[in-house]
Specification:
Length: 139
């Protein structure tokens, strides 16, 4: 008789998005893919919750009301020696080289532009990163 491991916990994602329509669209797509989503709207909230190891992944918008998504990554990356931080994916409407290069240098696993990334594609990619066991990598 084989022992069942029981139901696997749903992966959890921290979505940092201050624009309610985007938060709703992305959050709903992630939840439909079987991912539990916690949404916050400020960089300060992201810093507070981004240190929580229950999150498999951090999705952060570049434009936040109190700081940029790059600032969030910079501050989290500075603490990786003592605090586990999930893989970070940056969502942006600004696909300039400055934003993309800056995010990748700060350890983001990817930079996804909102115009080119449908909610369904985001959910698919997030599931892939979680399955791969990706980890935040500060440089």
């Amino acid at each position: 008789m084989e022992l069942s491991a029981g139901p696997q916990p749903r992966p959890q994602v921290l979505l940092v998005e201050d624009f309610p329509p985007d938060a709703e669209l992305y959050g709903r797509a992630l939840e439909q893919a079987g991912i539990e989503v916690t949404t916050v709207t400020t960089g300060a909230q992201a810093l507070e919750l981004g240190r929580d190891p229950r999150f498999s992944l951090l999705l952060v918008d570049i434009g936040l009301p109190d700081m940029s998504g790059l600032d969030v990554l910079r501050l989290l990356a500075g603490e990786t020696r003592r605090t586990p931080v999930p893989v970070a994916i940056v969502l942006t409407g600004d696909d300039s080289d400055r934003v993309i290069t800056g995010a990748l240098k700060l350890g983001a696993a990817a930079v996804l532009t909102k115009v080119k990334t449908s909610p369904a594609l985001l959910a698919e990619r997030v599931l892939g990163w979680i399955a791969e066991g990706a980890a935040f990598r500060a440089v």
